[in-house]
């Protein structure tokens, strides 16, 4: 029986390694700014609907008020869903341990959210609405109104994402040893 030496993993190189290495904290911060900006739109729209009592057609968030076409653009909504999906996918390698599990949950949920937006975009592009509906309709929109559904989707993606970031910035000692990104805590040695 021969014994072989375990080799150290090869150093990661390239832009993806840099993104999940020395630029991970900055990339996470930029990604979080985009996500919070989108959240602000959903919160404003919910406020307009449920606090101010506006009709759904008038409750267009912040940017939708001066630019009403934005709220009706399935390309814009699908584009954001893709940006979220790509961001969650590209930033995932920088996570370890418990934080990676939570980030992966956010990624999986966003993948489904993206499918729902793809169905909406497809209907808008084909000029044919599914399910005999007068407007493009996603699968879960058959049972939950669109505004509430997408507020829910963004919530269930955001929560595990925030948990992942929290755990990532406060890793266990074992997780900290595995981290190769700029988020790694500085540990004082005695």
TrEMBL record:
The keyword Transmembrane applies. Keywords: Membrane, Transmembrane, Transmembrane helix. This is Uncharacterized protein. The chain crosses the membrane at residues 75-91, 103-131, 151-169. It comes from the Bacteria.
